[in-house]
Amino acid sequence: MKTTTRTAFAVLLGMGALSGAAQAEIRLGASVSATGPAAFLGDPEAKTIEMMVEEINAGGGIDGEEIVLTLYDDGGDPNKARTFATRLIEDDEVVAIIGGSTTGTTISILDMAEDEGIPFISLAGAISIVDPVREYVFKTPHTDRMACEKIFTDMKAQDITKIGMISGTDGFGASMQAECKEVAGDQGIEILADETYGPQDADMTPQLTRIRDTEGVQAVLNPGFGQGPAIVTRNYAQLGFEIPMYQSHGVASNAFIELTGKDAAEGIRLPGTALLIGDLLAEDDPQYKVVTEYTAAYQAKYNEEPSTFAGYAHDAVALLADAIARAGSTEPDAIRDALEETSGFVGTTGTYSFTPEDHLGLDLSAFRMLEIADGGWKQLD
């Protein structure tokens, strides 16, 4: 899929003026996994990016210059993502790139962006994307390490200190597994059982049985995304576990509840964003306005609710538009510098404050600890 967006219909942001010789257009590139196994991530991301570019252009663009979006569908294939990144930079001559729905596709894009000096905002979760910090690479989702810390904090509040872990072997699952194991000791958590499953596995009963039979396990944690965590959750229910199960932010969407089934998903805890509980936010919540306005626009256009992953794309576009406006330039280095100077920028995922040492810009307060209750979401903190 490749689309070029030039038309629009609503105002998103009031943009500042671009200094110097104005160009006829602002070329923005994106590569997301709109189809394939990660389509539950990339499809809402693609929809959001297209919608927001339309809205910005409808409001007059940035200093009267419209954004021209070139959007590719990499299907979750890292090789395609690398090819599209090359095309975006060399042929489409974009000034910035959004994308990398998965850790694998992000890794394929970031080296190219870094080498060519093009600002890149990733939509994937692994901490390795921004640690160590790369000059031109930023990201909008919380890191997997932050998810481990948020989950372990909640566990300790429930007097849970000994757990079993069952992790996907995909890029995200493996990365979060490693991060949780690294921080567990400092968080006062002991991992008594450590199991894994592959992306194509259809039954995790053997692994869960071993966890259930491990003496002392007080809770189960499942780092992963896609269909795997839904299967794990159904198997967990079928085995009659009487201890809590925690999932990761990689499944923080209504689609997870639908895929798992309301009964099996009941009581599952996970860290998520304000976007999942927009209808529960108080009007004085700092994220209330951006969450409710974005949700309303997305629902009106696509007749569905935006997912957490859509929100990552929203924040990426908004951050770039804001940076270009403040930079007063479409030079990639100027955009990069403006991104790094971003402070107190409220998005659907949290409030971003980047620094030269921090290209994520979020802390644990951006996570909301959630529980699935009656087929919906309940905030716990």
UniProtKB/TrEMBL annotation:
One BP annotation, GO: amino acid transport
Pfam families: Peripla_BP_6
Leader peptide range in chain numbering: 1-24
Annotated keywords: Amino-acid transport, Signal, Transport
Zinc-finger found in the keyword field: no
InterPro entries given in the database record: BCAA_transport (IPR051010), Leu-bd (IPR028081), Leu_Ile_Val-bd (IPR000709), Peripla_BP_I (IPR028082)
CDD domains tied to this protein: PBP1_ABC_RPA1789-like
Record-annotated Leucine-binding protein domain positions: 25-360
Domain of life (superkingdom): Bacteria
SUPFAM superfamilies in the record: Periplasmic binding protein-like I
Family that this chain belongs to: Belongs to the leucine-binding protein family.
Name the record gives this protein: ABC transporter substrate-binding protein
Organism: Paracoccus onubensis
